[in-house]
Amino acid sequence: MTIVPLETSTEPPAVTSSATGRPVVPPRAAPAPAGPPVLTTRDFHLHYGPVHALKGVTIEILERSVTAVIGPSGCGKSTLLRSFNRMNDLIPGVRTEGEIQFGSVDLRDRGTDVVELRRRVGMVFQRPNPFPKTIFENVAFGLRMLGLKNRGELEARVERSLRRAALWEEAKDRLDRSALQLSGGQQQRLCIARCLAIEPEVILMDEPASALDPTATARIEELILDLKSAYTIVIVTHNMQQAARISDRTAFMLDGRLVEVDDTTALFTNPRQKLTEEYITGRFG
Ligand SMILES: Nc1ncnc2c1ncn2[C@@H]1O[C@H](COP(=O)(O)OP(=O)(O)O)[C@@H](O)[C@H]1O
Ligand SMILES: [Mg+2]
Asked: What is the pLDDT, as a whole number, of residue 125?
């Protein structure tokens, strides 16, 4: 198997389905600086039955950047994140109002293809959740779902994803072993590799390092910094130092509202809102 090293390859070959010959995974464009809004909400509300969890949130998530969402427990961070790939659909009694868009896709439209949406907007959770399968099959899973059968292409794509997720060196000699044998930090990088394999445009991460030790956390943070040249990343974290270390922009939420969103340095050094200042100086939350 030959693979062009990631550092020199900005135009991976398109993966085509052996069944249909159609592209399964489109090639990525060359990295560019943080760009236009990819995800946008305007006066967006979400209710879980009687619980009004998001109250008129207006935010733009910019392309090829890391946006951190901070705020005290229960303020709606995860709810906002899940709204971006319709994960809240799975919860009965959810009702939304206002606008929420992914590019030109109206995320409130019942007709939106949710499977395709979740391919384009991937998600990594707090607890690493590898499937009880081999390392290889975890990463190949999404590609198989998309109809890719060619073994050589699968191997190339799995290797590439593991390299991008900084797990290849640790995993290459045990691809056929159970993913559950990996450490917590390795499992989380595997989940990131699984997400990358199907070439998402956006990666949503909900406290991806909060269950990990400091060394594993540092590796995830390095990885996020590395990935932002090619992906749009939104990360929920309750760790303000982490937000300051890895994000370009930070959004502060409180009680279902977006209080402020700004460049990370500006938000932490010169917040515009008194509530933000009180939160980042540790006066509540
Ligand atoms: N599945 C659910 N059903 C009902 N209420 C929920 C559900 N998930 C979250 N909530 C409520 O919505 C609010 C926001 O929760 P969440 O988005 O999980 O906050 P955060 O991620 O900031 O801790 C909280 O009041 C929480 O109790
Ligand atoms: Mg949460």
From this structure: 95
Q: Give the count of domains, the chain.
A: 1
In this prediction, residues 137-163 reach a mean pLDDT of: 96
The pTM score is 0.88
Beta strands in 182-275 (DSSP E): 202-206, 232-236, 249-254, 257-263
Segment among 30-34, 194-198, 259-263 with least mean pLDDT: 30-34
Which tens digits make up the pLDDT trace of 15-58? Answer: 555 555 554 544 444 444 568 999 999 999 999 999 999 999 99
Asked if the structure places residue 42 within a domain, the reply is: yes
- In short, whether 237's Cβ falls inside 6 Å of ligand 1 is no
Whether the pLDDT of residue 93 is over 90: the answer is yes
The arithmetic mean of pLDDT across residues 257-274, rounded, is: 97
Is ligand 1 within 6 A of the CB of residue 79?
Answer: yes
In a domain, 106, yes or no: yes
Indicate whether residue 78 lines ligand 1 (CB < 6 A): yes
Give how far Cα 142 sits from Cα of 1, 118, 134, 137, 250, Å.
20, 11, 14, 9, 31
* Domain contains 29: no
Instruction: Tell me, rounded to whole angstroms, the distance of Cα 51 from its chain centroid.
Output: 26
Domain of residue 153 covers 37-280
Mutation probe of ligand 1 site: the residue of 78, 84, 94, 279 with most atoms within 8 A of C-beta: 78
Ligand 1 binding pocket mutation candidate from 48, 238, 258, 279 (most atoms within 8 A of CB)? 48
Q: Which residue owns the Cα nearest ligand 1 atom 5?
A: 48
- Residue 185 phi, psi dihedral angles, 5° rounding: -65, -40
53 lines ligand 1 (CB under 6 A): yes
* d(C-alpha 26, C-alpha 272), whole Å: 41
DSSP conformation class of 62: E
91: CA distance to ligand 2 center in Å?
A: 15
